[in-house]
Structures are given as structure tokens and as C-alpha cells.
Write a structure and sequence with these properties.
The chain is α/β, with parallel strands linked by helices. It is built from 19 helices and 16 strands. The chain has helices at about 15-25, 35-45, 60-70, 85-95, 110-140, 150-160, 180-185, 205-215, 230-235, 250-260, 290-295, 300-305, 320-335, 345-355, 360-375, 385-395, 405-430, 435-440, 445-455, and strands at about 5-10, 30-35, 50-55, 80, 100-105, 170, 195-200, 215, 230, 240-245, 265, 275, 280-285, 310, 345, 380. A five-stranded parallel beta sheet has the order 2-1-3-4-5, with helices on both faces. Strand 11 (about 265) and strand 12 (about 275) form a beta hairpin.
Length: about 450
């Protein structure tokens, strides 16, 4: 295991030498500098995990070194060495960003405790940076899988609005990826260095929603044992994602509208206003306009929420993406479960493409996870798919007639499947055969052959 590295900066050579020997004895890698200038240079070349710097030095003192280091790396952790009579300066250094200070006549055990606390903070910051990089990679636009015309239009609008600091309303059925899209918009916005805070309005009892969003003060209700900040406060500077906003109670819709107008909130039980700076992204699988007609959603709030509206198409309208998504999930679950399965049989893929996917992309993901777990070979087979999926697909493309010989019944089912599939594909692409084939990943000649086989008039789709 690589030793953690500490940079010590001090113009007193005896102190520098003694500190280096002590820290190396207890297992740290140590680099030393005899001046502020040399210390700043070593910080850039050595990339230490911790910096210990003397507050009082000629030319460039410890405060200047601290400011220079933090300007170069905001995640740097710095401890200030201070002598007798310079405590006040050490306190100012902490206000300027130092982790802690310790007097030069230190107790070794106390010194090690401070160092370990500082390095623990550094480890946490490094882990957070790694997590942030992972999330940034995961939530890039190109990691939303699909090349159908329907989802490509969504991509284009996402890219245009990500850096526009305006409210966004995402609509679509359950499982279409509304939270993933919201996270992508945040990650690719100027607020990406701040928090993305989600809340599902439909996942909480009505009496808890207000407290979760706005926070509460001690004694505001029976179980309010202490003051608590709400999720909107936690999202300050970042993005607040309110999922299933159609479930927001009417009395909270009024309060929420006021927040969007004034950019201020009040915790439950408090009269004190707290300024907030957030970008709001909301989502719903409900028909908000229908809720407005029924008097269950405020029209003025609706117009506040959807400065930009993104509609995510259901998977049944993204036929060309099922193949891509299925293989994406196959590769992911095969890798994470260390299974050798590498492909999907033609019969299994036909079933996947013929299914209506009421649960959309989320359902497809779970189906592929199950199929990979059950697969004993190098390809997913029909037997690896859930019975309800195979059954519904068979119903969708036409039930086999049991009074026919097996091969004739099978041909009848295949014919109905092919007719239904081509019909949907041509409808989705307005009769453009080349685009339909390209988006679906099908050879154009194969599609043309099937169109001719069933004497389909392409012009009726235009």
C-alpha cells in the first residue's frame, strides 16, 4: 500500500529535520521545504496528501502559502504550525481555509491525532472527487442509450437547455428514465459542482412532504425534536428534482408557487425567510392538463414549472432502440455477475421487440438482469425470458391456432408479428424506409423484402 505523503514547510532547519524523522518513523512519506517559495513549488510537483506549514516565515509566510495552495487545489488539506503568541494568526488561517493548527512544542500523540484527522478528511475529499467523476461519466448525454428519432429529439433539447438556468418539466410514463434525464441536465449544467437533490412526492405520506421540502423547526409538530433543514436548502446552488409533482397536495402547491416567485422559503413552524438559489426540475407521469381541468393542480404553478417541457417517449414508440438497450443491459449485467453470456438469440430478440413494455426501459432492464442470471449458455434464449412477456408478445402478434399443424401455426404467428412490427416501424418514421431501417438496425434490403412480401403500401404512412 502506498504511503500517504506529507509536505512540511518551515524555515527552522532543526524543526524541519525533527518533524521529518518523526513522521517517517510512524510510517508517512515526507518531503520538506525550507521556504514558502520552495514549498509551493513542491506542492505542485509532489502532490502531497497533507501540507504542514509554519505560520511565521520570511518573504512568503504561512498565510500566503495557504492561500496559494488553496487557489491551486480547493480540496487541499493544510495544518498550520504556530509558535507561542501567534494563536490569533492561526485562527485567521483556519478562517482562510486551514484544517487546524498545532503549536510547535507539540505532544507527539496529539500531533498524530490531528494529522490522522486531517488525512481522513483528505481521503473523503479524494473519494468524493472520484465519485463526482464517475457520476459525470455515467450521466453524460451520450450514455443515454438510443438512436431512434424520438429519443434523438429529446437529446437535442436536453443539450440546448442544460446550461439555461430555467425550470424544466419532464413528462412521460413510469420507467422512461425521467430522473436519469434530470440528472444528466444537472451534470451538464453550470450547477454541476453543487448538489442534485431528488424527492419523490408520491413516495411520502402527505403530512411529511412539506417538512421534507421546506424543513421544520423544533416543536413544529409532535416528532420535531430539533431544527431540520429541508431538501430545498440542501440543494442551494444546485438542482432540486421534484418527481411525481402531480401528487403535490394543493395547499403545498400554493406555497411552492410563492417560493418560485420570491426565491425564499420558510421552515415549517418558523416565520423566518431563507433565501435559496436552486434550479428546479420536476417530473410527472400524470396528465397535468387533465389535473388542471379537474381542479387538482394549479394552472399558474404549471406554467411556472414548464418553462421548458421534455416529453420522454415510451419504449413501444422507440422500437429501434430495444435492440441497443437490450444489448447494453446484457453487457452490463454479464460483466457485474461475471457470466459468459454474450448475445441474444433471434427468437428471444423477436419477443423483446414484439412486447409492449408497459414498464418501459426500467422493465427492460429488469428483464435482462433476470435473463442473464438464468442463462446457462453464451446467448439469452426464450426460456430465459419471463412467461408474462412471452405470453403477451404472443397475444400481441396473434395467438397460435391450435387447430392448425404446428408449422402452419408457427408461420401464422410469425406473419402476424412481422406485419405488426413493420406497421409500427413505418408509422414511427412516416414511411421513410431508409430511416426506419437505419434507426432499427435492420438491413434496408431485408425491410424492403418484407414490405414487398406483404404488399404493404408505404405511401399510406406519409
Amino acid at each position: 500500500m502506498q504511503k500517504e505523503k506529507i509536505l512540511v514547510i518551515d524555515d527552522e532547519l532543526d524543526m524541519l529535520s525533527g518533524c521529518q524523522k518523526f513522521l517517517e518513523t510512524v510510517g508517512y512519506a515526507v518531503v520538506v521545504a525550507e521556504s514558502g517559495e520552495a514549498g509551493i513549488a513542491l506542492f505542485e510537483t509532489e502532490n502531497p496528501d497533507l501540507v504542514i506549514v509554519d505560520l511565521k516565515m520570511p518573504r512568503i509566510d504561512g498565510m500566503a502559502v495557504l492561500q496559494s495552495i488553496i487557489a491551486r487545489d480547493q480540496e487541499a488539506v493544510v495544518i498550520i504550525f504556530t509558535g507561542y503568541g501567534t494563536i490569533e494568526g492561526a485562527v485567521e488561517a483556519i478562517k482562510a481555509g486551514a484544517f487546524d493548527f498545532i503549536q510547535k512544542l507539540f505532544d507527539p500523540e496529539e500531533f498524530l491525532i490531528v494529522i490522522e484527522r486531517a488525512l481522513k478528511l483528505r481521503r473523503a475529499r479524494v473519494e468524493n472527487i472520484a465519485l463526482k467523476q464517475m457520476l459525470d461519466t455515467r450521466f453524460r448525454f451520450e450514455n443515454i442509450i438510443g438512436n431512434s428519432e424520438a429519443i434523438t429529439q429529446v437529446f437535442g433539447l436536453m443539450q440546448k437547455i442544460s446550461d439555461i438556468d430555467a425550470n424544466v418539466l419532464i413528462t412521460g410514463e413510469s420507467g422512461t428514465g425521467k430522473e436519469l434525464v434530470a440528472q444528466c441536465i444537472h451534470t451538464n449544467s453550470k450547477r454541476s459542482h453543487k448538489r442534485f437533490v431528488p424527492l419523490n412526492c408520491g413516495g411520502l405520506p402527505e403530512n411529511l412532504v412539506e417538512s421534507e421540502i421546506f424543513g421544520h423547526t423544533k416543536g413544529a409538530f409532535t416528532d420535531a425534536k430539533q431544527n431540520r433543514a429541508g431538501l430545498m436548502e440542501h440543494a442551494r446552488g444546485g438542482t432540486f428534482f421534484l418527481d411525481e409533482i402531480g401528487e403535490l397536495p394543493m395547499h403545498l402547491q400554493v406555497k411552492f408557487l410563492r417560493v418560485l416567485e420570491d426565491h425564499k422559503i420558510r421552515r415549517l413552524g418558523s416565520n423566518q425567510e431563507i433565501e435559496i438559489d436552486i434550479r428546479l426540475i420536476s417530473a410527472t407521469n400524470r396528465n397535468i392538463k387533465e389535473l388542471i381541468r379537474e381542479g387538482r393542480f394549479r394552472e399558474d404553478l404549471f406554467y411556472r414549472l414548464n418553462t421548458f417541457e421534455l416529453h420522454l417517449p415510451p419504449l413501444r414508440e422507440r422500437q429501434g432502440d430495444i435492440h441497443l438497450l437490450a444489448h447494453h443491459f446484457l453487457n452490463y449485467f454479464a460483466e457485474t455477475s461475471e457470466k459468459a453470456v454474450q448475445g441474444i438469440s433471434t427468437e428471444a430478440m423477436d419477443m423483446l421487440c414484439g412486447y409492449t413494455w408497459p414498464g418501459n426501459v426500467r422493465e427492460l432492464m429488469h428483464v435482462m438482469e433476470r435473463a442473464v442470471a438464468l442463462s446457462d449458455g453464451d446467448a439469452i434464449q426464450l426460456d430465459d425470458l419471463p412467461e408474462n412477456l412471452v405470453g403477451q408478445t404472443a397475444d400481441t402478434i396473434g395467438s397460435a391456432q391450435t387447430d392448425l399443424p404446428f408449422l402452419e401455426a408457427k408461420d401464422a404467428v410469425i406473419e402476424k408479428f412481422e406485419r405488426t412490427f413493420i406497421d409500427r416501424l413505418l408509422k414511427a418514421h412516416n414511411g421513410n424506409v431508409s430511416r426506419a431501417a437505419r434507426q432499427n438496425g435492420t438491413d434496408r434490403r431485408t425491410l424492403q423484402r418484407l414490405i414487398s412480401k406483404y404488399a404493404i403500401d408505404v405511401s399510406t404512412y406519409r
